[in-house]
Design a protein that fits this description.
- This is Cell division protein FtsQ.
- Keywords: Cell cycle, Cell division, Membrane, Transmembrane, Transmembrane helix.
- The protein is of the alpha/beta class.
- It is 30% helix and 21% strand.
- The chain has eight helices and nine strands.
- It has helices spanning 12-22, 31-56, 77-84, 97-106, 169-174, 196-208, 212-215, 260-268, and strands at 64-66, 111-120, 124-131, 136-144, 147-155, 176-179, 217-223, 233-238, 243-247.
- The strands form two sheets. It has a six-stranded mixed beta sheet. It has a three-stranded mixed beta sheet with strand order 1-3-2, with helices on one face.
Length: 289
């Protein structure tokens, strides 16, 4: 005699229902995929999205890697950009995440350009960039508390203002100084100085950067009346107080004027403290008498 099931009568309707579903026509077979989809959707929103959000919503500052800064960059670029641009609120799942990260880093005064941003496994963000290079110090005279004093502002070869507080007094004195009468700027670091005469001198400072110590260049001065000369004219002063007339900034030479490369060769060949006009001088060139 068959043993009676110990299952309570109240559970039998559920069992019977499942049996009927299993034996249901093929048209009802779509019910199971639908249940799986709905179940997966609920599971994702309850647990999966939370897990992903923990790993990809908000960027961990420790997971940001950048191109190694040069030795003259003393500030913590990653911390500065992360703090000033609220990067912790940016999701790596954002389709514009890499563009926003590139824009954030490009605003730092030491960054000349961002060449690439990559999202790597584990929430790592790799940022490749080029840095600005200081080429000179612009001397500016200001009156503070009734006292007129001299201040120095570091710039790159495009006359972009660099962070002033990252240079010691001795380092400031080692750079070529740019002397432009009446020059001053209220622009922020990372912005152009804002004076075409300073920009002209910065062009020359960049050309002189590899050799200025060897040649003994101490200062670049803008000379002449700017109302009468469209292109600023420059002079270079050496350690022995000799002033040589350079002429137009590199790349802006007037017709018949010697190129920056020719002027530089002549300048490096100068001996003694006799001033020369580098625009036309040939006697100082190697191989010339």
């Amino acid at each position: 005699m068959a043993m009676r099931s110990a299952e309570p009568e109240t559970n039998r309707p559920i069992r019977d229902t499942l049996r009927r579903l299993i034996k249901a026509p093929a048209a009802l077979s779509i019910l199971w995929p639908a249940l799986l989809i709905v179940g997966g959707y609920v599971t994702w929103h309850r647990w999966g999205s939370e897990h992903v959000a923990q790993n990809y919503y908000g960027i961990d500052v420790a997971q940001i890697h950048i191109t190694q800064p040069p030795s003259y960059v003393r500030s913590d670029i990653i911390q500065s950009v992360y703090r000033d641009t609220a990067m912790d609120g940016l999701s790596l799942m954002d389709k514009q995440a890499t563009a926003k990260i590139a824009s954030a880093f490009s605003m730092h005064p030491w960054v000349q350009s961002v060449t690439s941003v990559r999202k790597l496994p584990g929430g790592v963000v790799d940022v490749r960039m080029d840095y600005r290079r200081p080429v000179a110090m612009v001397q500016v005279f200001r009156t503070v508390d009734g006292i007129r004093d001299k201040f120095f502002f570091p710039i790159d070869g495009h006359a972009v203002l660099l962070p002033t507080g990252e240079f010691t007094r001795s380092e400031t004195l080692e750079f070529v100084h740019i002397d432009v009468p009446g020059a001053d700027s209220t622009n922020a670091e990372g912005m152009p100085f804002g004076d075409p005469r300073v920009e002209a001198a910065a062009r020359l400072a960049e050309v002189l950067l590899p050799v200025y110590r060897e040649v003994g260049i101490r200062k670049i001065t803008v000379v002449g009346d700017p109302r009468q000369i469209q292109v600023p004219q420059l002079e270079v002063t050496t350690d022995n107080d000799t002033r040589h007339h350079w002429g137009s900034p590199p790349g802006l030479e007037i017709p018949g004027e010697r190129t920056a490369e020719m002027k530089l060769r002549a300048l490096m060949a100068v001996r003694g403290n006799t001033p020369i006009d580098l625009r036309v001088a040939t006697m100082a060139d190697p191989g010339h008498s």
